[in-house]
Amino acid sequence: MRLTFFFIILIIQILSTQFAFQPDICHAEKRFMIKFATVAPEGSTWIKHMRSLDKRLREKSDGKIGFRLYAGGVAGDEIDVLRKIRIGQIHCAAFSGVGIAQILPMVRILDLPFLFRNKKETDLVHTELRDYFSGQFKKRGFEFLAWAEVGNVNLFSKKPIQRVDDFPGLRIWTWSGDPISKKTFSVMGSNPIPLSITDVTTALNTGMIDTVYAPPLGALALQWHSNVKYMTSLPIAHATGAVLISKSYFNKIPHDLSKILKHEMEQTMIELTADLNSQAEEAVSLIQGSGVKLIPMPSGSDLEDFYRVHDQVAQALSGKIYPKELLDQVYEILNSIRKIP
């Protein structure tokens, strides 16, 4: 699914403004202040972890490296930030579908529907393909610092969805211009309605759409849950992001400092993911408490039907968004821990 990295606060993006930036490196003191942009607001879990990271970096490097944070979407959305990285106004950011599709479209393979069946599979694929994607990002002018997960994406609907046969007739939202969500819902028999994120609430209220997809935190923060009656337990996808830094800027950082940066960023993203996962569980409880019914996980032939949807979508987009060889590699990794008859 095409998901802006910080889905739970995407609405902030419409308030984004242009920002004036100062020179990035103080050569006289040989200090490197990395300009990191995010739409996450001050006080959010994201910013708390980034400030903790900044503190550790400064302590371990004797003040030679740290972060200058531009929070709350002040630097714009992912596309704006990407443009500013390319001209040197911003150095680093966390990207997901929107930004990654502009840099390295093949990473979208990780957003395919019903690809992962548990966290162990997600972690293994991320670990096994890290070096490959890191090399590909480098060719496009970026240094890969860490994976940054958004988490599972679920369906929220006005009608119960228990099997693939429930999709025909649904008025389901899809993000404008996203081939993965469009193909997924088309294969399941619905006629997806493309809209921007800012139009979803109004469309739900007027009945233009009756089904949306989002991480539970996103649905709660954007109040979509108040306009639906059901939430599916089966995640439709797992949204993955990556923290990237401009290669030209990264190459200016001495090796001892860049080594500290990579290690500390990796640890921070692990801790952040754990916190976000915990908050997602709390969000599901709050959503259920508001009166939304949680549809149980499908089983047997109903579950297999969803997996067949994955097969159709994955093959249809092979060679268009990602190479077939990469898809085969992902399956080889997954099959190594699945019980294949």
Give your account of this protein's structure:
With 341 residues, the protein is an alpha/beta fold. The chain has a single domain, classed as D-Maltodextrin-Binding Protein, domain 2 (3-Layer(aba) Sandwich), CATH 3.40.190. Helices cover 42% and strands 18% of the residues. It is built from 11 helices and 11 strands. The strands form 2 sheets. Strands 1, 2, 3, 4, 5, 8, 9, 10 and 11 form a 9-stranded mixed beta sheet that branches. A two-stranded parallel ribbon has the order 6-7. The longest helix is centred in the C-terminal third of the chain and has 35 residues. The two termini are 29 Å apart.
Write the topology of this structure.
Layout (H helix, E strand, L loop, with lengths): L24 E2 L4 E7 L7 H16 L4 E6 L7 H9 L5 E4 L1 H7 L15 H21 L2 E16 L15 E3 L3 H9 L5 E3 L4 H7 L4 E4 L1 H6 L8 E3 L4 E10 H4 L4 H35 L3 E3 L4 H18 L6 H12 L6
Parallel strand pairs: 2-3, 2-4, 6-7, 9-11
Antiparallel strand pairs: 1-2, 4-10, 5-8, 5-9, 5-10
Helix pairs in contact: 1-9, 5-10
